[in-house]
Amino acid sequence: MIFDRIGVQVPNILLPKAGTDMRKWAVIACDQYTSDRGYWQRLKEQTAGNISTLNLIFPEVYLEDADAEARIAAINRSMEQYLADGSLVEQSPGFILVDRKTCAAESRKGLVLALDLDQYDYNKGAQSLIRATEGTILDRLPPRIKVRKNAPIELPHIMVLINDPECTVIEPLFNEALETVYDFELLENGGRLKGYRVDRPELINQVAAALEKLADPAAYRAKYQVDGAVMLYAMGDGNHSFATAKAIWEQLKEEADDPREIMNHPARFALVELVNVHDPGLEFEAIHRVLFNIDPERLKQQMESFFAERGTPFSFAPCADLAAADALAAQAEGAHAFPVVLAGQFGVCSVADPEYTLAVATLQACLDSFLQDHPAARIDYIHGARTVTELGGKPDGAGFYLPAISKHDLFKTIVLDGALPRKTFSMGEADEKRFYLECRRIKV
């Protein structure tokens, strides 16, 4: 069943067979702990001998390893095996209602469904129903495309946001008597995950009607004071995974013999978890920056030159520790100020009269320039100040601590200003990210 106006498909979800150790089946999103091989090694040891989504994903910590092609081939073999031997069982058409307890929240609610990739555009200035919230880094798509290209199934860590202040779409389902399909503790401080089957036609239609009301053009234009096309969905987590699915779908359309028949292909849709941006269990966290293989003094000099050329003077004030740097940065007026650790020395970087609205945009423009001039340097995007201090405090490192944006401003900002700079915000800390669990066929 497809609801074209709101870009929703009611999917046939694949779940692991009865008796599966769900704790070992579900693992965290592949784009977490990208500088922590120890985390992924622990998962390998904890899931050994069990069917697990760890065998179906490519953790990004390994992306630059020499065995990438062999790893992708092994992933596809595992997918085929899990389908062939009954490890994955196709459910009747329906949604999965999710309740996630994390280390930071007692409950974060979501709804697993499929969205129409034909109604998504990640390009700048897009006026599509589904839009990117951050800049899409095209260089990050090819390795993901290699993983998905021959994959018979998808399993998402994608979380898509809706702006539903009256809580009309997801929350009412928790008042219904629904069948529990899973309820278990997650590995590695992930919290607890509960899932409920939503397959009754009246409830599916209820969800669709609520989404259609949110997508009403007149109400949308009155809310945001704009004349453009309706944006119903904003990407939360997994933007590049969704963009990867979009790229493969566009390729399939180009290669299709029958342009009408291809519209029935399962790869037209992508499985996601829908989350209300107003859910009390959802918080936005900052995504920090860490540089590796650098000369900290040279970095500081180049920052001074970069901002001087733009007429936005840069200054650095040393501090005794991170707490002092946080306090000093908070006092800044009319400038973008952010704490930093350079080779173990804490301080505050300040940029006067910045040309961008957000501090992250100011910093990222400078770092992009520095990385272009220093090919040996490497950047990583980090959740959690402690990890920034640990990694950025090394003699050849730098760590930048950035503020979080308000989740209540997100939709208005995207509607009015377009996508934010890449890696601007995170929906919670690393341990709160979505765990892989539900799957769906994407091959005919």
Q: Tell me the total number of β-strands.
A: 23
Q: What is the share of helical residues?
A: 25-40%
The main β sheet shows up as: 11 strands, mixed
- What amount of the residues lies in strands? 15-25%
What shape does the CA trace take? globular
* Average pLDDT taken over every residue: 93
Low-confidence stretches: none
From the alpha carbons, calculate the radius of gyration and give it in angstroms: 22 Å
- SS field, number of helical segments: 12
Q: State the distance separating the first and last CA atoms.
A: 17 Å
Structural class: alpha+beta
For the record, the count of structural domains works out to 2
Structural account:
The protein has helices at about 20-25, 35-45, 70-85, 140-150, 200-215, 215-225, 240-255, 295-310, 320-330, 360-375, 385-390, 410-415; strands spanning about 1-5, 10, 15, 90, 95-100, 110-115, 120, 130, 155, 160, 180-185, 190-200, 235, 270-275, 285, 290, 315-320, 335-340, 345-350, 380, 400, 425, 440. The protein is of the alpha+beta class and about 450 residues long. The chain has 2 domains: about 1-285 and about 430-440, no CATH class; about 290-400, no CATH class. A hairpin with a 2-residue loop joins strand 18 and strand 19. Helix 4 (about 140-150) packs across helix 7 and helix 8 (about 295-310) packs across helix 10 (about 360-375). The radius of gyration is 22 Å and the shape is globular.
